Amino acid sequence: MIIQKQYKFYAAHRNEELTDKCRNLHGHRYGLICHFEVERTGALTTLFGDFDAQIEPHLKEHYDHGMLINKSDPLYETLKEHERRTGERFRFKEFDAPTTVENLAFTLFSEIIEMGFRLSHIEVRETDSSVITYTREDWIADNRDRSRLSGEKPSAVRE
Ligand SMILES: Nc1nc2c(c(=O)[nH]1)N=C([C@H](O)[C@H](O)COP(=O)(O)OP(=O)(O)OP(=O)(O)O)CN2
Question: Which family does it belong to (predicted)?
């Protein structure tokens, strides 16, 4: 059986590797739809609230009104320097690769299964017209070859 749960958060990001509008610092209302595989053992499977109790605080603490940022983006060091200089603290969600919606899906999928839930797939909405479906097979493939996240060739095939 599949239970579908929907969440949202607001966050800033940019894609520093692109040369179009996406390079600009901008924000999104990200949507997340989780499709959980659950077992029926009685009248109920997993309580809806059991998902919310873990996922909502996680999104609030690490993502909401924060900034998704690639630690290799030069802007990251600039903002860290601002923090050091002023004592101000920003909510950064740090990535080891560009903050594309594909990489966000990998990160969210990893974090949610780490909580102990079984996911068949998730859908991540970045804009009104753009949503990706990210499956367990995608997650297995991304884990097998992490160079897919950064777009680097794996070391075995690098010239
Ligand atoms: N495969 C991907 N393509 C794009 C990504 C991405 O993460 N993966 N990201 C972007 C940009 O971040 C951008 O903010 C979204 O772009 P786009 O859908 O083109 O934005 P619109 O303003 O045109 O959205 P509408 O809802 O259609 O107005 C780009 N591509």
Answer: Belongs to the PTPS family. QueD subfamily.
